[in-house]
Amino acid sequence: MDKKTFVEKIQKSYTFKGESILIGSAILGDDYETGCQIRLPLKTLNRHGLIAGATGTGKTKSLQVIMENLSDAGVPVLAMDIKGDLSGIGAEGETNAIVEKRASLIGMEWKPKSYPIEFLSISDEPGVRLRATVSEYGPVLLSKILGLNDSQEGILSMVFKYCDDRNLPLLDLKDLKSVLSYAQEEGKEEFKREYGFLSTSSTGIILRNIITLEQQGGERLFGEPSFDVNDLMVTNNRGQGMINILRLTDIQDKPDLFSSFILCLLAELFQTMPELGDPEKPQLVIFIDEAHLVFKNATQNLLDQLEMTIKLIRSKGVGIFFITQSPTDIPASVLGQLGTKVQHALRAFTAKDRKDIKTASENYPFSDFYTVNEMITQLGTGEAFVSGLDEKGRPTELAYTLMRPPYSRMDVLTEQEINAHIRSSSLAREYNVEIDRESAFEILQSRVEAKEEEVEQKMENARTAPKGRSRTEQSTFEKIIKSPVTNTIAREVTRGLLGVLGIKTTTRSRSRSRFRL
Fold first, then answer.
1. Is 199 a member of any domain?
2. Does residue 106 contact residue 401 with C-beta atoms inside 8 Å?
3. Euclidean distance between the first and final Cα of the chain, in Å?
4. Alpha helices in 324-414 (DSSP H)
5. CA dist list (Å): 218 to 221, 237, 258, 408
6. 206, 294: one domain
7. 3-class DSSP state for residue 283?
8. Which residue among 1, 142, 161, 417 has the highest number of C-beta atoms inside a 10 angstrom radius?
9. Dihedral of CA 335/322/228/64: which sign?
10. Phi, psi (5° rounding) for residue 448?
């Protein structure tokens, strides 16, 4: 097929009536001056996407370009920054000969530009703290996070019902553990009488799974003040969408925590946002870097929940892009939901690599111009195969694309620059405070202490009761009180009351109520 036919077909496929974003220009063979700009319609970016390619092929810069375009269109962004290399979008870029040449080939005007950013954190990284209470997560979602079976989920639901009926706030994991322990000991008969039998073995498994989550730093996901997801969807005074960068460089070795957070975030967005159908542009686009961490070692329950949420959240105006090395990192059931694909070069060093490349090439539309499985190893840095959806939801022509250079800095911000952004953040001032109001832990601790004092008072009254007989004539009651058996029982009662919750009571202050997931 000649160049003229190619140009006509590509231009027709990538020309849209509505608003679109420029990501590069098409290449035909060695011809980089085809004049065919490759654009993606805003209308379809809530139908999810994939950015894939080997290390060093330009995935991060392609991600940066798409985020810049979305922000300029007034669409807020949430980006999971696993490697710590996305912060440069908050500063202006610098031109050089390569940038100028690429801009000329694409037929665009390059200008340095910075974008509004907010740093977020669920770990020890500096940033706005993201968390929610245990009650807001609810028993169903929490069971998915903990990998519980149906029977264990039923027990967790029973515990939540008990807390609701008795106004016991479940704010953090400490509260949940205290209620589970209380249900096994002091409250055992109460639970059995009003809610049914509570299996000791199942309760023990739940407690162990909670501890495992805590060891990965999961306790930082829970507590107050709860983060309002609507704070992610804001624009600045110039109409640019806020780019929220979630810094995750210290949890690369904690895939369970990462996948749990993603699931919770998507579930909260799904519950919060209204049904929009097919909006003209997304309300929020989420970019999940190193996406294989989400699916690595994830339980089937977690995968099922993620797949269902991804399928349904599109109609809420939320798009999700996965960034990873190979499309094979993404489960087929999820990969089939991704409308936009940007495929950078893959490397074939092993037999498995060659098999993965063949599989990856089959994920793209058939092309009259390119042999994908051969060319995919020959793409240069900053070049990619691009396939999207047109405004009617039909796949566009596969385009070998020279990606445009970012307007913002192609390097990271310094530590001083990051800290300056956080100090000026109104969200950091609102959410980076510790609220520890009275909740289930303190209430149950008080209840246990009251029972302990009651027992001690009864024993003291028995010891100091008036004696109507001589020292040699003890009453039957006194004989019982002073018997070794009675002393043993008293010690065991006291140990049972003290052995569940022996931590000093703390005082909590105000909180903001949210919805339950």
1. yes
2. no
3. 55
4. 332-335, 351-361, 372-375
5. 6, 36, 9, 34
6. no
7. coil
8. 142
9. negative
10. -65, -45
pTM across the whole model: 0.82
Q: What interhelical angle do 200-215 and 150-165 show, nearest 10?
A: 90
Sign of the alpha-carbon torsion through 222, 225, 226, 228: negative
Instruction: Kindly state the DSSP code that residue 253 receives in the 8-state scheme.
Output: T
Closest C-alpha among 255, 181, 169, 273 to residue 213: 255
CA dist 269 to 67, 265, 317, 380, 512, Å?
Answer: 20, 6, 10, 38, 18
Across-strand partners of 403?
24
Q: In angstroms, rounded to a whole number, what is the distance separating the alpha carbons of residues 387 and 396?
A: 6
Per-residue burial over 447-478, b if 16 or more Cβ lie within 10 Å, else e, is bbeebeeeeeeebeeeeeeeeeeeeeeeeeee
Mean pLDDT of 104-131: 93
**294-319 core/surface letters (b: 16 or more CB in 10 A; e: else):** bbeebeebbbebbeebbeebbbbbbb
Q: What share of the chain is helix, strand, coil (3-state, %, to 5)?
A: 45, 15, 40
C-alpha span between 7 and 485 (Å, rounded) = 96
Q: Which of 262-271, 453-462, 465-474 has the lowest mean pLDDT?
A: 465-474
pLDDT of residue 1: 60
Question: Angle at Cα 208 formed by Cα 151 and Cα 204, nearest 5°?
Answer: 50
Residues 257 and 376 in one domain: yes
Asked which of 381, 403, 431 is the last residue of a domain, the reply is 431
Helix axes 255-272, 134-146, angle to 10 degrees: 130
390: containing domain = 19-86+227-431
- Residues 462-485 have pLDDT tens digits of 777 765 554 444 554 444 445 444
Q: pLDDT, tens digit, for every residue of 332-370?
A: 888 888 999 999 999 888 888 888 888 878 878 888 888
Please state the domain count of the chain.
2
In tens, the pLDDT along 479-507 reads 444 544 444 444 443 333 333 333 333 33
Q: What is the sign, positive or negative, of the torsion defined by CA atoms of 323, 66, 363, 54?
A: negative
Q: How far apart are CA 39 and CA 106, in angstroms?
A: 12
Are residues 277 and 424 located together in one domain of the fold?
Answer: yes
Decide: 512 and 466 in contact? Cβ < 8 Å. no
Which residues touch 362 (CB under 8 Å, ≥6 apart)? none
Statement to judge: residues 382 and 407 lie in one domain: yes
